[in-house]
Amino acid sequence: xxxxxxxxxxxxxxxxxxxxxxxxxxxQGMQGQQQQNTIKNLQSGLLPQVKGPQINDRDTVNFALAQxxxxxxxxxxxxxxxxxxxxxxxxxxxxxxTHAMTRELFDLMFRKGWYTLEAEQPQKLARTHQQFxxxxxQFPYPMQ
Length: 144
Prior knowledge:
It comes from Desulfoscipio geothermicus DSM 3669. Pfam families: Coat_F. This is Coat F domain-containing protein. InterPro entries: Spore_coat_CotF-like. By secondary structure, this protein is mainly alpha-helical. It has a domain at 60-144: Up-down Bundle (Methane Monooxygenase Hydroxylase, Chain G, domain 1). It has helices spanning 2-7, 11-17, 57-81, 85-112, 122-135, and strands at 22-28, 34-40, 117-118. It has a three-stranded antiparallel β-sheet with strand order 1-2-3, with no helix packed on it.
């Protein structure tokens, strides 16, 4: 299943899908100015411009996301090392639910403009895709 998904990956279509987000371009350094693209939604306007010591919604969701990441890391180890099949299955169910919650928290933060991503150049995505596609010749089983 993973190989099939990777085969169907298209860097150009991903770049087109990203057009729905706002791209912010900033310059860094005086010599050899390097452009950095970030992908983010506009902030909701609910946060103060200068952050004080009070805990706000962003802080709470950010803390919850950090906790979910910590839990999934530890559940991954637990699932990998569970010696009993039924225990392993239960831990995998909990792990999947935890990953889903992590994604929901990330999506919430992104929608609110509290989480930004760096956009990669489509050419670099295509180059990396080609590189890893070539690795598939080393797999012990044929790709379908």
